[in-house]
């Protein structure tokens, strides 16, 4: 997993890097500029138009000067604009400014505060923002308003170095911040990348490595992580030749209502496709006939047989998808809580916990909750949408109750019983469609039944769910994608991670 560190922690890592690798800060800045330039040249090797680099007089501006020098040496038409935003320039910035001025071939212009600027920028050009780095905690001062407006209003493609200037690395951007089409971060992603409140400022991001020490060398305990494909591959277990269906768990799904029959079958199908050995669907009686024809692999016990004793035979139990207006859901939850089995609670089960706070406080350890933001805010009584507050509250509750929360979103966040948050990066906007959450709940429950831990089940499922949707776009579009497409591409997602012979 990739750790997400605060600016203060990154400065400590930089210090450790200089000590362990016996390099200076100016050398580290050269590495950062080289890493950015290597990435840029791979992506824009055939770019023939101007590259405009806007540099503050701190270390982020120093990175920009290195980038300008190296891009010029590769043959790009580089123009540099200097803005003395800080009262004092850093030594590394000054040294790199001297280096680039000594070349006498790069156009350099000063931008002054409180002055309108007129820069000849064409739509085919590229803008690089290196005004402020990860240490910024607020937008640029009002005296730089004209610079920010001119930059943001330009039609050219905009790239920010590490962070869009003015956007706090651990918080939200505001008016007066630079807007980026792409952010190229160094080594570690920043928490701000994952916050929907920053969508205006950060359209997308990627990482470039500057060769920092390995995680074990800097002895920092991160609270946030990002899942990588290798994390999933390292946990997924290949199937044994002489195994049978009973080796992969028996799942009970309590889902569906007369008006939402489809939610139950979506959850059941994805549960089977994710590897559960058997699935029993406690369906609404009015939906049973359709379930027999839609998915013959699913068993259909009657809901009136649900009690703690009957649920104890299952490896995992999912409650909630499509159960709007089901009056007995409170009873089903109490029976499931008393059964002592592994639980996944989704949709209306979570809403019921919001209505019955005593029931919420009795939630069994090891339970997985899968709310979207609205359900999360109702459950935890958050009045104003705030992602950082959600993560803080979720972390505290997971530690206290020893549960796992999967908070659904563009970067789905899995919060572990230790309070650690793991962001998922697979998926696409096409997943904003009815039934997508039902599919995810089924996948999670399948992994729980197969013996994976609660938080492993959650972040594996989130990754596969998003990857399946990404692979579905080979034939579909974000507009046309439907939930059943995600289930249909689960096999392709497994094969993508574990080539066929490795299963």
Task: Walk me through the topology.
Blueprint: E1 2-4, H1 7-21, H2 25-43, E2 50-55, H3 59-73, E3 77-82, H4 91-103, E4 107-110, E5 126-130, H5 145-153, E6 157-161, E7 182-186, E8 205-208, H6 215-218, E9 224-226, H7 229-235, E10 250-254, H8 261-273, E11 278-282, H9 288-294, H10 308-311, E12 316-319, H11 329-339, E13 342-345, H12 348-355, H13 357-361, E14 368-369, H14 373-379, H15 387-401, E15 404-407, E16 413-415, E17 421-423, H16 436-449, H17 454-472, H18 483-488, H19 490-497
Helix pairs in contact: 2-3, 3-4, 8-16, 12-14, 16-17, 17-19
Written account of the structure:
This protein is α/β, with parallel strands linked by helices. The protein folds into two domains: 221 residues, Rossmann fold, CATH 3.40.50.10260; 263 residues, Ribokinase (UDP-N-acetylmuramoyl-L-alanine:D-glutamate ligase, 3-Layer(aba) Sandwich). The chain has 19 helices and 17 strands. The strands form two sheets. A ten-stranded mixed β-sheet has the order 1-9-17-16-15-14-13-12-10-11, with helices on both faces.
Low-confidence stretches: none
Strand order of the largest sheet: 1-9-17-16-15-14-13-12-10-11
Distance between the termini: 23 Å
Structural class: alpha/beta
Largest sheet: 10 strands, mixed
Instruction: Name the shape in a single word.
Output: elongated
CATH class of the largest domain: Alpha Beta
**Cα Rg:** 26 Å
CATH architecture annotation name of the largest domain: 3-Layer(aba) Sandwich
**Which oligomerization state do the chains in this entry correspond to?**
single chain
Helix content: 25-40%
CATH topology name of the largest domain, in short, is UDP-N-acetylmuramoyl-L-alanine:D-glutamate ligase
Strand content: 5-15%
Write down how many β-strands occur, each being a DSSP E stretch of 2 or more residues. Answer: 17
């Amino acid at each position: 997993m990739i750790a997400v560190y605060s600016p203060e922690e990154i400065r400590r890592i930089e210090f450790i890097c200089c000590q362990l690798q016996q390099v200076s800060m100016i050398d580290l800045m050269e590495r950062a500029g080289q890493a950015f330039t290597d990435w840029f040249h791979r992506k824009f090797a055939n770019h023939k138009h101007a590259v405009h680099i806007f540099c503050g007089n701190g270390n982020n501006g120093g990175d920009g000067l290195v980038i300008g020098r190296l891009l010029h040496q590769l043959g790009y038409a580089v123009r540099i604009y200097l803005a003395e935003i800080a009262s004092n320039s850093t030594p590394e910035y000054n040294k790199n400014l001297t280096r680039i001025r000594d070349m006498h071939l790069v156009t350099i212009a000063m931008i002054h505060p409180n002055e309108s600027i007129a820069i000849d920028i064409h739509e085919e050009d590229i803008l690089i923002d290196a005004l402020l780095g990860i240490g910024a905690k607020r937008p640029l001062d009002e005296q730089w308003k004209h610079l920010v407006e001119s930059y943001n209003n330009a039609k050219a493609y905009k790239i920010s170095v590490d962070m869009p200037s003015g956007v706090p690395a651990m918080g939200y951007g505001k008016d007066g911040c630079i807007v980026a089409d792409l952010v190229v971060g160094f080594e570690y992603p920043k928490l701000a990348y994952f916050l929907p409140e920053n969508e205006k400022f950060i359209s997308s991001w990627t990482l470039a490595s500057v060769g920092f020490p390995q995680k074990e060398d800097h002895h920092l305990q991160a609270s946030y992580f990002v899942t990588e494909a290798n994390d999933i591959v390292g946990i997924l277990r290949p199937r044994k030749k002489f195994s049978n269906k009973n080796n992969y768990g028996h799942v009970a799904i309590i889902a569906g209502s007369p008006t939402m029959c489809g939610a139950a079958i979506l959850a059941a199908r994805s549960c089977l496709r994710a590897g559960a050995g058997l699935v029993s669907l406690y369906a609404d009686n009015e939906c049973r006939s359709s379930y027999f024809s839609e998915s013959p692999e699913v068993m259909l016990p009657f809901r009136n047989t649900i009690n703690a004793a009957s649920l104890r035979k299952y490896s995992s139990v999912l409650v909630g998808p499509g159960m709007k207006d089901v009056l007995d859901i409170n009873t089903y939850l109490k029976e499931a809580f008393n059964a002592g089995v592994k639980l996944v609670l989704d949709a209306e089960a979570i809403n019921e916990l919001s209505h019955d706070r005593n029931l919420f406080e009795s939630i069994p350890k090891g339970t997985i909750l899968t709310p979207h933001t609205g359900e999360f805010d109702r459950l935890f009584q958050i009045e104003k949408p705030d992602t950082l507050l959600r993560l803080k509250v979720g972390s505290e509750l997971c530690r206290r109750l020893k549960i796992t929360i999967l908070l659904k979103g563009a970067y789905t966040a899995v919060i572990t019983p230790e309070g650690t948050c793991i962001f998922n990066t697979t998926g696409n906007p096409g997943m904003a469609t009815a039934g997508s959450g039902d599919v995810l709940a089924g996948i999670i429950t399948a992994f729980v039944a197969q013996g994976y831990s609660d938080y492993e089940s959650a972040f594996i499922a989130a990754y596969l769910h998003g990857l399946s949707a990404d692979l579905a776009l080979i034939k579909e579009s974000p507009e046309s994608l439907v939930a059943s497409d995600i289930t249909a591409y689960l096999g392709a997602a497994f094969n993508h991670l574990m080539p066929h012979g490795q299963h």
